[in-house]
Amino acid sequence: MQPELAPSNGTDDAGLVRRAQDGDPEAFAELVARYEKSIFRLARNITQNAEDAEDVLQETFLKAYEHLDEFRGDSKFYTWLVRIAVNQALMKLRKRKTDRSVSLDETFDTGEDTLVREIAVWADDPERLYSQDELRQILASAIESLPPIFRAVFALRDIEELSTEETAQILNLSVPAVKSRLLRARLRLREKLTRYFKRKGDDVFAYL
Amino acid sequence: MSLLTCKDFLKELNDYLDDATSPGLRQEIEAHLAECPNCWVICDTTRRTLRIYKGTDLYPLPSEVHQRLMEALRRKMSQSKNGSGQSKNGS
User: Domain B6-82 class?
Assistant: First the structure.
């Protein structure tokens, strides 16, 4: 669709970062081309707002450019970038609403709350029940309904496919905290989608 | 006979879906799934939830957003060139 600086030359990130640090703008542009889609998607998933996501995208790469000398290669460049983006995205959320749910430090009961309410078999090919637009709407509104920290964990682990350890590092959470939030996020999404995707006629409710 | 309870299963669900369980535990989980329809449904629908999300790019980068990012970067780069020479390294 859009003109893209394809990461064709096989140069690894570390090499590009070194060249960018030495003042090569094309090397930095290549890093942008590699990660802009992911950063935008992540920002959009966390902020749930198109305008904020664009701001976060720009702020992330501008900050990365500005602070490139401070990147020492202790982590992957992408992880460093994501950390900047997540911080920017959470700041946007805090600005937009003085919502207590934005806090990352908030402790959740990891034990006894109900994880599963509805258990129903899904239709064989539930995506086919809806148009592309409807399906996207269903998926988007399910994510939107999650608390921000769940959205962040789900987006990092299951959409951007970072490891549990990387996600923990980026969000300043412990590994068990990431795991329990991810489980909750996945099960809540499952539950939301079940409303749309369950096989007609099946109405099984159960509580675990 | 499975030794796992439904609650145990739920605790292991993430690792199971991520293929991160030991072979022994995996066997126990699969034994539980074979005899517990509820957990089987939870496992199946959660797996499909992940598959659907992974298979759908909900927020593709609009080309005008890409263009504006590149413009912002060009402005930034020319500023730092004018400010302190080509490279940020030597400063």
Answer: mainly alpha
